[in-house]
Every structure is written in C-alpha cells, then in structure tokens.
# Entry
Amino acid sequence: MTLSKALVPSQTLLSRVLMVLGGSMFIAIAAQVSVGFPVPMTLQTLAILIVGFSFGARMAALTLVAYLAEGAMGLPVFAQGKNFVAFAGPTAGFLVGFVGMAWLAGLAADRGIKGLIPTALVALGVSALLYVPGIAWAMLADKVLGFDATKWGADSFSMIWQYYMAPFLIGDAIKAVLAALVVSGGWAILKNRKS
# Structure
C-alpha cells in the first residue's frame, strides 16, 4: 500500500485526477527552486521521488506524463520557466527519464518498501539510473537528430562528467535522503494518527 492509498483509501476518478494535477504542480514548483552554485540544481528530482514513493508506480508515471504534457503545451513548468523548448535542449533526456524515475520509485512503494534506510537506498539507485537517458540524449542528440552537442558541453565523456554528473551527485544523495525523510515521516504521522 502506498502513502496516498493509506490517506485516501477509496480513490475515485476525480481524486486521482486531482492527485495527478496536484503532483505535476508540485513538481513544476520544485523545478523553479534553484539551489547551489556555480551549477544550479533544482528540487525537481526531490519532488519526483516524493510523488513516486507516495503515489505508486502507475499514478506516479501518469503524473510525470501529465507534467511533460503541460510543458509540451507551452506551460512554463520546467526548470527556469522553460516549456517545450527544453525538449530540444541538453536536458531533454533527463525530462523523459523522469517518467521512469517516478515509476521505479512508485514500484518500490507498491512492493512495500518503507522506512528511512530502504527508501533512501531505493531513491539513490533510482536517481543514479536517471543519468542513463540524460547522458545518452546529451551524447547522441547530435548524431541522431543533428543538434550541435558541443555547445552543450557533451562532446566527450570528460565533459559529460564535468557538466552533467559531478556537480549533481552530492545534491542527488541529499535529495534521496530528504525524499526518504518526507515519505517515512508521512508514514509515521499516519501511524500515530491511527493509534
């Protein structure tokens, strides 16, 4: 059972639609919060992990599909207020990978993963897997679609490491622990309320 099902046991179609829209809005707001220098990072992946662990695989994936659709329709929901333009930029692989990230976090929740340590470990693993589509897009977009990836700093693995991975690893670890704290805290509050 997921946190959302524990909070709202009889999920109607309306409640699910509201959850998807609320979750996508939560992610859009988190995407606008930039933290750190010189390479700013957003709280977007933190929000995605929380949505995944709280909603379960199917609802989390639907939430991320809705989020991407909102950006594709022109809404400024992506980092730095971007919209569909981001799909032709260096982070497009990460955007698409968000669906898998949410689904995997949700799958762990569906399978009964609870508690701070197990949730944090899953969040770390899921966060690491997000680099696969993100880096693949950055490295292959020029060859497959004719984009100039050199302007993205994606023309060699050392550049990929420098611009796409190294600056974000510590932040990803912190966000994984924060997501685990939020979700396990939600379970603790729910347990205390029932007792």
Summary: The first strand starts at residue 34 and ends at 35. Strands lie at 34-35, 41-42. The CA atoms of residues 23 and 160 lie 30 Å apart. DSSP finds eight helices and two strands in the chain.
